[in-house]
Amino acid sequence: MKMYLLLPYLFLIPLSCTTVSRAEPISEIIRFNSNGVALEGVLDLPGGAGKFPVVVFVHGSGRRSRSDYGEFVAPFLKNNIAIFRYDKRGVGNSGGTYFDVDVGTDNSPITIPALAKDVVEAVKNLKRNPRIDSTRCILVGASQAGWIIPVAASLENIYLTAIFSGPSVTVGEEIYYSLLIENEDYTIEDANKKVLSYKGSRGFDPIPYLSKIRQPALWIFGSRDESVPVDRSVQLLKQVRDRFYLPIQIQIVPGVNHSMRSKDGSPTDYVGYILTWINKHLAKN
CA-based angle 259:212:110, to the nearest 5? Predict the structure, then answer.
């Protein structure tokens, strides 16, 4: 696994020149550097004075951008939690080269840690912001973020982590499970059983990183996830939780798929669940 010399810098650029009431939320463009790559995103801040806890949203797979996780913005701002979303490297206004780990396992041991270091640099830069409470930086993400967040949280002081529809299995196992359902027409139940006997290339494995994290972590799964083998992921999480006495909370939502939607397409209130869990921990301080 490659290690990089990180040279962070930060620019704050108001999105609008219009005078905004202190009671209203404000947004700022943030540019930061990760291993010589310039990345860009938007920081949404609650109105009013003071230092705010911040949630950094971590990308899922694909060419993801700052427009992701929009459903979190309004409820989190209303609860005085700042939000940072950025364009993945090689996407939107972020530089660098985009790499896809969904096509195979070969590049995943390099790509996942590189994406995690982008998250770390975002957190480091936000901690310097006078509007941010540097002791309460939170990582939230879906899907591929299940691999990225454990690496980032093992490298930087993170307050909380929350992952939904994210795998704790290896990259190879996740790809194998997805192909069983998509191309071979296995049921979710049968695919969950078959992945237990997978003998192929595994690629990146998040478990060694998860075992190092001592911060509270929330993992939410849909029982009908067609991309992540939920049974095996939950089994692995319970094993690492029990072995190292980690504060991992696992929630399975019945009848919900990878997109956190039920069979008829209606969404679940996973945003509210995550917000409630975060507020519970923030209230302890």
Answer: 65
